[in-house]
Inverse folding.
């Protein structure tokens, strides 16, 4: 890891939580690089889809409930 990476690890307080039958929740400030290369900064809580059915990937849009996702 380079110096910048080490610095980020010291300054960011990030927690990850796998929700039963739901998304992956990431708490903290994140920079997300999307598949088209664009970037978004997310604050507080970000939900990432684990079920594969979201229309807003990589983020959860709540579709896992309709899909009765188990995992
Ligand atoms: S986990 Fe919520 S839409 Fe996939």
């Amino acid at each position: 890891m380079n110096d910048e990476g080490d610095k980020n690890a010291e300054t960011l307080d990030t927690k990850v939580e796998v929700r039963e039958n739901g998304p992956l929740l990431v708490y903290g400030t994140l920079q997300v690089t999307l598949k088209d290369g664009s970037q978004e900064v997310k604050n507080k809580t970000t939900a990432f889809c684990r079920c594969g059915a979201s229309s807003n990937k990589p983020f959860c849009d709540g579709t896992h409930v309709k899909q009765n996702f188990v995992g």
In short: The chain has a mean pLDDT of 89. DSSP finds two helices and five strands in the chain.
